[in-house]
């Protein structure tokens, strides 16, 4: 008879192993923290920064270097101002005269154009005195980490790039008045943007946004909000709480209706809601006494308050597509949508989604031409014309 062999199976207490692992992780984190504190307290980083600053100053022109030094030493100059008041006044008069003679020297504007740029230049981090950024048509995907250092920034103009997100540090730019991030690849807006209480103009056209954070309700100074060509299915709640809003552009989205409390926007002057799925306009729009222009798509709109159409102080503009050969057009549109969907999927895989801004520019030009007229046409039909050369 064959004897059975017993196999000894080792038994381990997993809680002991987990405890040992947690102790090791804790010690490793403590070592990393001490190393980080040591690096921060070390003088090497400060020395490197000083040398980089000196190298950067060597590349500057004399006028630019003087302007930078004057900004960095401004606190020192204010301390000694009471000692030599006459000298300081003379220097200020001379500076004002030079600025008047050379107005370009006083421009604190940073400009960056061209698709060969994939990142911001390194020396930008020392130009914290800048007032405006204008970055267009680049392949930059994100804003720099040192953006919060530009506390005097009033204009941030970054359209037609490949930026995928706005950093939370943007909320520290409390002096910001204009932000244009149109035609990028934004899918969300940081709630910290609501801390920019002085913001007056916000343009987010041509992105992938479907909502705005409620924290943007704190933008009480905002007068211009442009979120056209996105993926909104309803008006953001925060937009209805921007009490000073004068222009609201929600065109080319997926809106099916407008809220019944639109009259919260008591100072609204211009409303763009064309290229949506609206079938009616709410009666509350008639309660907005400042409203002077409404642009809608007339193809599917079948219910309009009479007061909006008959009021001579309101320019009510209906935009129609070309009605000729509707069936043929539907078939062509269907084919185009299928082709565009294929191209979009292919571009999304390659990360090359690009939106066209020509249609929006055409609408803006057309609307501007109507502002000077006393009356507007009952409806407008947009006709596409192609020329074969």
TrEMBL record:
Region (Disordered) spans which residues? 79-103, 327-352
Please verify whether the record's keywords include Repeat. yes
Q: Which domain of life is it from?
A: Eukaryota
Q: What keywords would UniProt list here?
A: Leucine-rich repeat, Repeat
Q: What do the Gene Ontology cellular component annotations say? A: cytoplasm
Q: Where in the sequence does UniProt note compositional bias of the Basic and acidic residues kind?
A: 87-103
Among the Pfam families in the record, one is LRR_8
Record bears the keyword Transport: no
SMART domains xref list: LRR_TYP (SM00369)
Gene3D superfamilies given for it?
A: Ribonuclease Inhibitor (3.80.10.10)
Q: List the protein's name.
A: Leucine-rich repeat-containing protein 2
| Encoding gene per record | lrrc2
């Amino acid at each position: 008879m064959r004897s059975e062999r017993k196999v000894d199976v080792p038994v381990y207490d997993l809680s002991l192993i987990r405890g040992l692992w947690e102790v090791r992780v804790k010690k490793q984190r403590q070592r990393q923290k001490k190393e980080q504190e040591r690096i921060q307290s070390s003088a090497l980083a400060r020395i490197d920064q000083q040398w980089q600053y000196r190298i950067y100053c060597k590349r500057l022109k004399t006028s630019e270097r003087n302007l930078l030094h004057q900004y960095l030493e401004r606190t020192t100059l204010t301390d000694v101002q009471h000692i030599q008041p006459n000298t300081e006044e003379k220097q200020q008069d001379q500076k004002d005269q030079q600025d008047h003679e050379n107005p370009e020297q006083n421009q604190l504007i940073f400009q960056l154009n061209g698709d060969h740029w994939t990142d911001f230049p390194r020396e930008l981090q020392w130009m914290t005195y800048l007032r405006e950024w204008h970055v267009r048509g680049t392949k930059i995907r994100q804003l720099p980490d040192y953006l919060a250092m530009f506390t005097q920034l009033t204009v941030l103009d970054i359209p037609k790039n490949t930026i995928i997100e706005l950093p939370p540090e943007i909320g520290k730019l409390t002096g910001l008045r204009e932000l244009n991030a149109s035609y990028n690849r934004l899918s969300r807006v940081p709630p910290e943007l609501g801390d920019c209480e002085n913001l007056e103009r916000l343009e987010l056209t041509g992105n992938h946004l479907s909502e705005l954070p409620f924290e943007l309700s704190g933008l009480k100074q905002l007068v211009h909000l442009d979120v056209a060509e996105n993926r909104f299915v309803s008006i953001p709640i925060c937009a209805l709480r921007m009490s000073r809003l004068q222009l609201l552009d929600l065109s080319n989205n997926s809106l099916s209706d407008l809220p019944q409390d639109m009259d919260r926007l008591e100072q609204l002057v211009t409303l763009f809601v064309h290229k949506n799925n609206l079938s009616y306009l709410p009666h509350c729009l008639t309660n907005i006494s400042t409203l002077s222009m409404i642009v809608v798509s007339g193809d599917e709109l079948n219910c309009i308050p009479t007061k909006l159409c008959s009021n001579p102080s309101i320019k009510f503009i209906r935009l129609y597509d070309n009605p000729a050969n509707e069936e043929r057009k539907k078939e062509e549109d269907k084919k185009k949508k299928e082709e565009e969907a294929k191209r979009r999927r292919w571009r999304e895989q390659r990360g090359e989604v690009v939106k066209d801004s020509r249609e929006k520019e055409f609408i803006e030009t057309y609307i501007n031409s109507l502002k000077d007229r006393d009356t507007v046409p009952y409806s407008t039909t947009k006709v596409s014309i192609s020329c074969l050369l």
